[in-house]
Amino acid sequence: MFKVENHTETLTDTKDFMDVEYPVMEHFYTIQGEGAHTGRASYFIRTAGCDVNCWWCDVKDSWEEEGHPRLTVKELVYAAENSGAPFAVITGGEPLLHDLLPLTLGLKSAGLQVHIETSGSSPLSGQLDWITLSPKRFKKPTAEVFDYVDELKVVVLTKKDLKWAEDNAAKCPEGTKLLLQPEWETPKSIDIIVEYVKKHPEWGISLQAHKFLKVP
Ligand code: SF4
């Protein structure tokens, strides 16, 4: 969990944050397909903008902010609240390119828990109940994010990524859920992960279940 403290000094009233806008590629009610909360109903908010540039990225349309609508916190909170989802997942793109305080305060004021999926490469912001860190070597995580990680999810393409996974796990708090996830277009990564997890049972496997379920 991460919380910006003393937010009331800057945002004293609901109206202070409900009109703030974010570039949003898409937002929708779905089933969380990855990580510890797999299978749970959740409201996804995919912000636009990413400066990490993973060559294997499957959401390259999210990299540029331009061309995506700007939606207010009010609009996003209304949609999430009315979906009936118990929690929202803010993802990207790289959501931490934006100050998430207004959006997360809005979601929490509507009674939703707030999860984030991030590369951790920009400063933390907002009120976050669950932080999934998916570190990318193309733009490494900040030192700060490791204190707050709930779940470490490392995408694996080759054996080299296992060392990257261990290097990041060493910086996470005790009790962090450790997950290796095969890259969808790299089937050989499954064998690498299965063998590794059998030898290192502190790690588990995260699959992109939403792709099997054919939900967005
Ligand atoms: S951090 Fe995520 S959105 Fe950004 S390039 Fe990498 S996989 Fe794509």
From TrEMBL:
Residues reported in the UniProt entry to bind S-adenosyl-L-methionine: 56-58, 93, 134-136
Keywords: 4Fe-4S, Iron, Iron-sulfur, Lyase, Magnesium, Metal-binding, Queuosine biosynthesis, S-adenosyl-L-methionine
Domain of life per record: Bacteria
Cofactor binding: number and manner: Binds 1 [4Fe-4S] cluster. The cluster is coordinated with 3 cysteines and an exchangeable S-adenosyl-L-methionine.
Pathway: Purine metabolism; 7-cyano-7-deazaguanine biosynthesis
InterPro entries: 7-CO-7-deazaguanine_synth-like, Aldolase_TIM, rSAM, rSAM_sf
Residues bound to substrate: 31-33, 46, 91, 216
Keyword 4Fe-4S attached: yes
EC number: 4.3.99.3
Catalyses which reaction(s): 6-carboxy-5,6,7,8-tetrahydropterin + H(+) = 7-carboxy-7-carbaguanine + NH4(+)
Keyword Transcription: no
Binding site for [4Fe-4S] cluster: 50, 54, 57
Domain Radical SAM core: 37-216
Subunit structure: Homodimer.
Family: Belongs to the radical SAM superfamily. 7-carboxy-7-deazaguanine synthase family.
UniProt protein name: 7-carboxy-7-deazaguanine synthase
Gene: queE
